[in-house]
Design brief:
Radius of gyration: 29 Å
Distance between the termini: 103 Å
Oligomer: single chain
Helix content: 40-55%
Strand content: 25-35%
Low-confidence stretches: 1-13, 29-43
Number of helices: 6
Number of strands: 9
CATH superfamily of the largest domain: Carboxypeptidase-like, regulatory domain
Structural class: alpha+beta
Number of domains: 3
Strand order of the largest sheet: 5-4-7-8
Mean pLDDT: 78
Shape: elongated
CATH class of the largest domain: Mainly Beta
Length: 196
């Protein structure tokens, strides 16, 4: 049996010649590489979560509160940027709220400290357009989701009640939805009378 010598730094070991030796060498290299890859974390176990918030017109959102996992929070600057230091790598819930834009919540896998989170959030004004578009397309679940996402200050308005009545009418159909149609007509007349 032939023997080959494998030199690793200053240690010397013997491997038998042939496929068994190549397999043993390959297995040893694979174990070393897997061990290195699984324990390697660039930059440590925590990093700075950075992001930018824009509305649907691609304008930055300033003064918007961003929070990670009910603990760390900050506000966006004039350019819509935010930075949260000391965030552990892993899956987090990122939440936000502002005065003129919808609240948001999403799961985010934070694993690269160089990555920048880009978030688009509709303003209340844009949300009304999205509701109107959803109703025209007969996408009732989307319209109802957007109506529910608006804050109470917006839900107490005549336009909200009108859009809600239209969504309920479209969902119920022409026979069961007659009461919703009557309510939508009354609200529409109320809105028309106030604008004159």
């Amino acid at each position: 049996m032939n023997a080959h010598t494998l030199r690793v730094r200053k240690c010397t070991g013997r491997l038998p010649a042939g496929t068994a030796g190549q397999f043993a060498l390959g297995a040893m290299v694979l174990c070393v590489l897997c061990g290195c890859v699984s324990t390697f974390r660039p930059g440590g176990k925590k990093g700075e979560l950075q992001g930018m918030l824009y509305d649907f017109d691609n304008c930055p959102i300033a003064g918007y509160c961003v929070q990670v996992d009910e603990s760390v929070k900050t506000f966006t600057d004039i350019n819509g940027r935010f930075s949260l230091p000391g965030v552990a790598y892993g899956v987090h819930t990122v939440r936000g709220s502002g005065e003129k834009h919808l609240d948001f919540e999403q799961e985010y896998q934070f694993s690269d400290k160089t990555e920048i989170l880009h978030i688009r959030i509709p303003s209340y004004e844009t949300t009304w357009v999205l509701i109107d578009t959803a109703l025209e397309a007969r996408n009732i679940p989307e319209a109802q989701r957007l109506l529910a996402a608006l804050p109470n200050t917006e839900q107490d308005t005549l336009p909200w009640r009108l859009y809600h009545a239209i969504a309920c009418y479209l969902e119920a159909g022409p026979v069961e939805g007659d009461c919703w149609l009557e309510q939508a007509e009354r609200l529409s007349a109320s809105i028309g009378g106030k604008s004159r």
